[in-house]
């Protein structure tokens, strides 16, 4: 893996493809928006996040997985677009729940339009996702269409379960967490809708319901977990301009990331007391000094290194599961792209 | 109409039926809830509003309309339950947007569980509504099922359009409104999902797609508008214990009700200045004294009487449209129930 990850062409190729998919999906998302009123208070705000360039990873996974299993792009695009629309709906609501100020390099909807308008815009995006999904499943035979629709709802519930648990841990000041709790959390919060559903539904459509989906869950979980951990880590060590969100935002929110869970486990003495005090404060009560102190502890106690190594271990497992998950897929550029995502995430650590 | 409205048996009969439907739908809503975790932070909060007795008007309209057009109860119940679940999802989010404290006689979800948990619970209820709806449409032929599903999404968007406009009028301090603007608002905010969709989808299923749905829209709009105006009026003149929400809550929020729109049009001199000052304040800045002053003006300028008479006029039109809308429906207890709803709303004015 390391030798591939050292190949700068790989990173460029993955990012080129993600950018292409992103452009295509962004256009399709905006085309799907209803052309009605009120623009000022609903349909305008609804267009904002979909119009901002995002990673488009979910759409790319669905398209590539589907084509690798034999579907053509036309049968997949609507599904990929529906997933991205739901993702945008979640982002809008998460930004309200977290009190975030920035998203994709610009103010959040709640920051620029107020809480109520943002809430409605998130609801609206979820409904448009449902419209797009239904239209996309119409050409499928009814049983397969039902399955794609049913799994979409299940995936949305899994995401909410994770989101609700994460918020609950913060609001109820839960402290006794271990890495397994964090993995269980991101399995729900991130993996279902970021990796597992896009991969599975692509394979389902490509194989007309015959592919063995169990190995895809295992691959999707490990890959998605590494992806989420990387995202958490970028929030701690990244550059605000390229990251697009507030650096250390998770620390202000008190998010129980793997890094924080590790630190809670290993910090001792007066550091421990500082940490407990930090956890019990509200976001507004967490001063920049306090957040900096916690961030420095993460270096001193090896929590950043622990996180990086943990994710690298998960990625190695993901690489193994990849071959099993796509054993029946067609060789070609789609399979190559999917295979390159593992070293791509690896490369982004450094 | 008046003679029927004076019949106390009619009110009792309508309320008995609504109570029966409410019990049945409440049980079905709770049965549809996923049996997973986190109960504490998601599935517990999601059960709270559906477990509180509500009006069940939407479900009763769908069941009665469907049976009057020939469907059996089993084919309708899931649809009725999905509508009520979506209604509960909207209530949860509206209570966040409005900053409301009470719902159905108990604290709102956001008041008892915090904004983030309430937001997730609302999202979750909408997803369960979608699950229930899909299951309910599976026995229908595919074209009819697609239509029921598509109209459900359209109806949800209409509701959001109204909700977003109402919030926009408040946040942007919109003052130049006339009764037609208010009617347009509640057409979107209330009528689509409270009366039009339940009636239409019932007729659609009962007639296997052959019923003329246009007159049902006209009846649904007039009946729904009268219903919403009555609800607004109860917020001004009702009794907190039986009403279940905060009396004068709409005035604290600055909601542009028909009564307020009338007052804005007719108030003169210093009263007008007081009103403009009231409109421009935030909810927190509206003192009980100020709200009382505005409420008194509504009596003095005849705005309460205007509202009552306006709604009575709409109900008379609804009564005419009723016969056209249900011309092809079967006589029997379902049609009788639907017919009695018009004088029932009338009776509740007094």
Describe the structure using short key phrases.
two-stranded antiparallel sheet; 2 strands; Farnesyl Diphosphate Synthase; 77% helix; homodimer; 350 residues
Which SSEs are present, and which pair or pack?
The structure is a homodimer of 350-residue chains.
Chain A: H1 2-5, H2 8-32, H3 39-51, H4 57-68, H5 73-98, E1 102-103, E2 106-107, H6 109-113, H7 115-137, H8 142-171, H9 179-206, H10 214-237, H11 240-243, H12 249-253, H13 258-266, H14 269-280, H15 288-300, H16 303-325, H17 333-347
Antiparallel strand pairs in A: 1-2
Helix pairs in contact in A: 2-5, 2-17, 3-7, 4-5, 4-9, 4-17, 5-7, 5-8, 5-9, 8-9, 9-10, 10-16, 13-16, 14-15, 16-17
Walk me through the structure.
2 copies of one chain form a homodimer. Chain A is mainly α. The first copy, chain A, has a single domain, classed as Farnesyl Diphosphate Synthase (Orthogonal Bundle), CATH 1.10.600.10. Helix content of chain A is 77%, strand content 1%. Chain A is built from 17 helices and 2 strands. Chain A has helices spanning 2-5, 8-32, 39-51, 57-68, 73-98, 109-113, 115-137, 142-171, 179-206, 214-237, 240-243, 249-253, 258-266, 269-280, 288-300, 303-325, 333-347, and strands at residues 102-103, 106-107. At the A-B interface, helix 3, helix 5, helix 7 and helix 8 of A face helix 3, helix 5, helix 7 and helix 8 of B. Chains A, B: InterPro entries: Isoprenoid_synthase_dom_sf, Polyprenyl_synt, Polyprenyl_synt_CS. Chains A, B: It is an enzyme of class 2 (transferase). Chains A, B: Its EC number is 2.5.1.90.
């Amino acid at each position: 893996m390391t030798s591939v990850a050292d190949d700068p062409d790989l990173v460029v190729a993955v990012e080129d493809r993600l950018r292409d998919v992103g452009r295509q999906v962004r256009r399709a998302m905006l085309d799907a928006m209803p052309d009605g009123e009120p623009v000022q208070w609903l349909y305008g705000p609804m267009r904002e996040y979909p119009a901002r360039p995002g990673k488009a990873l979910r759409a790319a996974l669905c398209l590539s997985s589907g084509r690798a299993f034999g579907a053509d792009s036309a049968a997949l695009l609507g599904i990929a677009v529906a997933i991205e629309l739901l993702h945008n709906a979640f982002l809008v609501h998460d930004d309200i729940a977290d009190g975030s100020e920035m998203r994709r390099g610009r103010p959040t909807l709640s920051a620029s339009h107020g809480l109520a308008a943002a809430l409605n815009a998130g609801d609206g995006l979820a409904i448009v996702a449902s419209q797009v999904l239904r239209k996309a499943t119409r050409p499928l035979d009814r049983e397969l269409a039902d399955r794609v629709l049913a799994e979409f709802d299940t995936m949305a519930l899994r995401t909410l379960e994770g989101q609700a648990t994460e918020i609950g841990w913060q609001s109820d000041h839960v402290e006794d967490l271990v890495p397994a709790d964090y993995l269980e959390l991101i399995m729900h919060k991130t993996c279902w809708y970021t990796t597992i559903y896009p991969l599975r539904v692509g394979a389902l459509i490509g194989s007309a319901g015959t592919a063995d989906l169990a190995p895809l869950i295992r691959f999707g979980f490990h890959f998605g977990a590494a992806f989420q951990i990387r995202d958490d880590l970028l929030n701690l060590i990244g550059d605000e301009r390229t990251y697009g969100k507030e650096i250390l935002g998770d620390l202000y929110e008190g998010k129980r990331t793997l890094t924080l869970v590790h630190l809670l486990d290993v910090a001792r003495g007066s550091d421990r007391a500082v940490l407990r005090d930090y956890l019990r404060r509200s976001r507004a009560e967490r001063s920049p000094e306090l957040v900096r102190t916690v961030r420095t502890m993460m270096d001193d106690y090896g929590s950043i290194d622990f996180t990086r190594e943990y994710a690298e271990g998960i990625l190695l497992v993901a690489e193994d599961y990849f071959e099993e998950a796509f054993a029946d897929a067609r060789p070609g550029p789609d399979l190559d792209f999917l295979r390159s995502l593992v070293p791509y995430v690896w490369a982004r650590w450094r």
